[in-house]
Design a protein that fits this description.
The structure is a homodimer.
Chain A (H helix, E strand, L loop, with lengths): L1 E4 L2 E4 L4 E3 L3 H5 L2 E9 L2 E2 L2 H14 L8 H15 L4 E8 L14 E7 L11 E7 L13 H5 L1 H6 L4 E6 L2 E4 L4 E5 L3 E4 L8 H7 L7 E4 L4 H5 L3 E6 L3 E8 L2 E2 L6 H21 L1
Parallel strand pairs in A: 8-9, 8-15, 12-13
Antiparallel strand pairs in A: 1-2, 1-7, 4-5, 4-6, 6-7, 9-10, 11-12, 11-14, 14-15, 15-16
């Protein structure tokens, strides 16, 4: 498996960077993550929009233009030949002489195999809530201090993942957005969250009998929901069965599965679009 | 210059780690920073207490015992021969196969030359305030996302550094604690800050006519103070002349300089203690 560092390919075992890098020294970096299906990157323009936006917000210059970055990704895809994969693009603060001042960023692109999840019959997730507001929420930074630290807490609570809330206002999961379904609405947080690409695609769907609403909602509303689900690039729309040990709805996740099917159609359209 | 990685010495140009490390992938790591004077680490037991505490809080195992870590540092000091230096000990989440799960931590020790600041005649700092509460504040994590991102903001405000406050309650600087001096009190925040070693040493001093108080205080109180200063391992007690463009006190920093002199005495005592 090859890894691209500043647009040069290295075998994974040789893909090293200096400990002077600001990601190691100061946790300073952004990233993005998209998937390929049959060697075709999905929704790449959306991911590029977010990646360049994150870079700008953090005053990091991307040396490659969008076209060049696209080419760098295609070069990696061609070399690795992992048709269904996740592509992680990391941009760090660079090799800082004083371990503090930002310099020329380092660009790392890593490809890993991805099992495409169809999830029509899969069991839903159990989430455990935690009071935490991600800093600089609209930027996809590499800051997962709480998520990683709380892996133990998640296990102790027999859960699969965290559900962050800001003093009771539900926000998101560490690597996914979060939705609830009521009688006629499909609700997701609007503020202080990462604007997920899958979230955006979901909000563009038409679901007969339901309206999409972006607003604050409480943990109590989530407990009382008919359905709950997460959205992410790897999991699409994936049912949530339990929050804080409480069962959500009747476990059928009818709307979630319908949304997931629609997402798969969108992905298929994009996948065929250029290949 | 040599750098220690997992207790092996590497030339700085060869001190690289895999991009699979969780510091690069997820900003996950802790560190500590102490200084040496004439090749003697100062207050090393205090720094070790904090380092092992940080590691425990973040569920990172330090493979080396305190004695072994001390030996690793002395080995690096002996090899580099930089009598007056800063020693940075970084502990990361390790090389994670899935880029998310914590594994065996990596321990990196970096030594850099340090100019010993006597500061009796130096100009004070200009700070600019910013509303930000550090996450997991009692732990010295590598998270400096805001500090690095705001370097531009600091420059634009003709300041030397940031002063974080939590909705008006003054907290600390990115790399230093913060004190104000009133008629008879020397005040520093108590909660939601990093417990600096230099801060602790200052609080142990006796300053005739003054009482040390640990409590919340506002930006307005800081603007009105007779003196203000920061405390850190590199700067000891260092005067602050301006906050948000407002001059603090009469600029003489009498108490700050007295405290700094006392600190230098403590440091000298420690330096002679074991050498």
């Amino acid at each position: 498996m090859y890894i691209s560092i500043n647009n040069e390919l290295f075998l994974a075992e040789d893909a090293n960077i200096s400990v002077a890098d600001l990601s190691i020294q100061r946790g300073y970096g952004i990233f993005d993550f998209l998937k390929t299906i049959n060697n075709k990157p999905i929704f790449i323009e959306d991911y590029f929009n977010r990646f360049y936006h994150s870079a700008k917000e953090m005053h990091l210059e991307v040396e490659l233009s969008r076209t060049q970055l696209h080419e760098a990704i295609l070069k990696l895809i061609a070399r690795n030949n992992i048709p269904n994969s996740g592509i992680k693009i990391i941009l760090t603060g660079g090799f800082s002489e004083d371990g503090y001042t930002m310099v020329k960023p380092n660009l790392i692109i890593i490809q890993t195999p991805l099992n495409i999840i169809e999830n029509s019959t899969s069991k839903g997730l159990a989430l455990v809530s935690y009071n935490h507001q991600r800093q600089i929420p609209q930027v996809k930074t590499i800051d997962y201090l709480q998520a990683i630290r709380l892996q133990k807490f998640v296990k102790e609570n027999a859960a699969d993942d965290l559900l962050y809330h800001n003093h009771g206002k539900v926000r998101e999961c560490p690597r996914a957005n979060f939705f609830i379904v009521t009688d006629h609405e499909i609700i997701t947080a609007k503020d202080e969250i990462l604007n997920g690409i899958t979230r955006k695609k979901i909000l563009s769907l038409e679901v007969p009998g339901y309206t999409f609403v972006e607003r604050d909602f409480t943990l109590d509303e989530a407990y009382q929901a008919k359905e709950a689900f997460i959205s992410s690039s790897t999991k699409n729309a994936f049912p949530v069965d339990k929050i804080d040990g409480k069962l959500i709805g009747d476990g059928k996740s009818t709307i979630t599965r319908l949304i997931n099917d629609r997402l798969l159609e969108l992905i298929e359209l994009d996948q065929k679009g250029e290949s």
